[in-house]
Amino acid sequence: MARSIETSQLTVARAAAALFLQRGLAATSGADIAEAAGISERTVWRYFHNKESCVAPLFAKSWKYYAEELRRWPHFQSIEAHLAECFDLAKQPPEWIADGLLIVRLIATLPDEPDLRPVWLASYHRGEDELAAIIGDRLGRSHGDFDVRLCAAAVLAAIRVIDETISIAAIRYAQEFTTAEVVAQTAKSIRAVSHLPFCDPVEPRPFGGSGPMLSPDAERAGRTE
Amino acid sequence: MARSIETSQLTVARAAAALFLQRGLAATSGADIAEAAGISERTVWRYFHNKESCVAPLFAKSWKYYAEELRRWPHFQSIEAHLAECFDLAKQPPEWIADGLLIVRLIATLPDEPDLRPVWLASYHRGEDELAAIIGDRLGRSHGDFDVRLCAAAVLAAIRVIDETISIAAIRYAQEFTTAEVVAQTAKSIRAVSHLPFCDPVEPRPFGGSGPMLSPDAERAGRTE
DNA sequence: ATATAGTTTGACAGTAACTGCCAAAAATAC
DNA sequence: GTATTTTTGGCAGTTACTGTCAAACTATAT
């Protein structure tokens, strides 16, 4: 049974992250990463088109964690209730802990490794469509609706800021957070930037959607894929 | 009298943008950019540490335009009033028109040039501190305050989404917008994602700031510089 | 105008990042 | 098992990018 390609890429990402953290991005070569990951350099460049994006799968994992939980979010539940339920660290697979630490440490080094930040931002950005779909679904609106996309972008930015704030506080200032604190802060921040009422329980409704804010053309245009 | 270095970099950016738009990022070499910009390749690499970021000055200009106007924003004025005043296209220097078109066209190609998107995102990201300062100033709060930073990130995301939506609508769907439409939509979107009341007139107040949401350490930690 | 100091640039050589190509290996289907 | 497709490694070649140094340019002083 073969490992999926995502798993292989994640292996490379972990190796790359460890090296970047240890000796810095500039001092790490493609050959180093390949060796640490136990594959040929050729395959590294097949997986990623540049050195920095080798860690992208880890960053993506940070968001995918949220995405998966949000997709399961029942319509009748508030965001606070749902997050409290699924953010139980004890429920996470053990490998998550190690990856989580790697991610947090990477985020904390962003100020020192400016070339890593675009990768971080782009990883999060890829979640916008997905989040728009989730929000749209909850509100019975299209994911192409301008307001829905606006909301998704703002919420994703909020989650990103929280990730950054907490990671830096944890690594650089050795601060510790309880799960409850993180959940409360996350929910509060998401609510703060949301102008659509998707955080509260909604009754399931047939797909409908309200009028677009920009013209329909502009709406279609807004989708990135 | 020497041209400032920013001007030189902008020249390179314009040349690079034209080439990227014409034949694509992959088909454009560093030597091509250098030649088109009328400087040596060595200088191109001194200005930018990779090919993609050659267009960053143009992207940055897109945000700086907002930033400058917002810094001038008088405390007693609402955001609608202020934006309406300064978004008068006739008031812009003529070179702005050409650059603006270049920027809009670049944004419209982002779906086809995925390697340009990180540059776009990072350019906007660099405005977060600046915007936090503006918002903080209006509210008499510190720019390090978590809520202020959260608000800045959300507002910047909103402006970015508007830029993307309008650019794609204009280029791919040949839609046209009046200044008034753009201003109204921008102000409305900024308000939508803002949970702090900086959009309305505020009375000038001595620097004070309310209590932090996270602990002071976490607040300091959040700043990226 | 000339000297001096500081900054920016180009030339060129070298290294590291990255691609194309093809054959070996591995997975999958039958 | 064989046939087919997908994934991988090896290696050669190209392009992106850096280090170094001398020439050119700017600025300020006199």
Automatic annotation (TrEMBL), chains A, B:
Q: Which top-level group of life is the source organism from?
A: Bacteria
Gene Ontology molecular function: DNA-binding transcription factor activity; transcription cis-regulatory region binding
Q: Which UniProt keywords apply?
A: DNA-binding, Transcription, Transcription regulation
| Upper classification of the organism | Bacteria, Pseudomonadati, Pseudomonadota, Alphaproteobacteria, Rhodobacterales
Specify the protein name: Transcriptional regulator, TetR family
Per the record, DNA-binding region residues lie at 29-48
Which Pfam family would be a valid example here?
TetR_N
Q: For the HTH tetR-type domain, which residue ranges apply?
A: 6-66
Matching entries from SUPFAM superfamilies are given as: Homeodomain-like (SSF46689)
- Which Gene3D superfamilies did the record assign? Tetracycline Repressor, domain 2
